[in-house]
């Protein structure tokens, strides 16, 4: 991408053909997303999900059937990324029971020397419809 341009990248994975009993039925998923600005690497997001001798992917995913990441970078969406960092970065009040159907977290992405501003939203949800609805919010 060119300096000053904007990017919204959504990458998510579904559990598989759940009706056929193929829920998280694999041994490893390894992905890497690299984003370059004017030929310079500004972000590398890597995921390595695998079975371990003590815990399978299926067991570790629990009730969640969707796992994803949304990367937002650019000046035209800086208000959105600031709002996401504020809303998703806020801690729940003590005693408030967290939502059990989805988990959304945010990491700010700031690099003044490369003029990069944005955020990375990572999420898990029980269904793709729920993940989509939460992303739309």
Tell me what the structure shows.
Pfam families: UreD. Keywords: Chaperone. There is one protein chain. This protein has 137 residues and is of the alpha+beta class. The protein has one domain (7-136). The protein has helices at residues 57-61, 78-89, 128-136; strands spanning 7-14, 28-37, 40-50, 66-73, 102-111, 116-125. A four-stranded antiparallel beta sheet has the order 1-4-6-5. The protein has a two-stranded antiparallel ribbon with strand order 2-3. The longest helix is centred in the middle third of the chain and has 12 residues, at 78-89.
Low-confidence stretches: none
User: Cα-atom Rg, whole angstroms?
Assistant: 17 Å
Overall pLDDT score? 88
Major sheet strand order: 1-4-6-5
**Alpha plus pi helix count:** 3
Number of domains: 1
**Fraction of residues in H or I helices:** 10-25%
Give the helices and strands as they follow along the chain.
Answer: EEEHEHEEH
Shape: globular
Largest sheet: 4 strands, antiparallel
Tell me the number of strands.
6
Q: Briefly note the structural class of the backbone.
A: alpha+beta
Distance between the termini: 26 Å
Instruction: Estimate the strand proportion.
Output: 35-45%
Question: How are the secondary structure elements laid out?
Answer:
Elements: E1 7-14, E2 28-37, E3 40-50, H1 57-61, E4 66-73, H2 78-89, E5 102-111, E6 116-125, H3 128-136
Antiparallel strand pairs: 1-4, 2-3, 4-6, 5-6
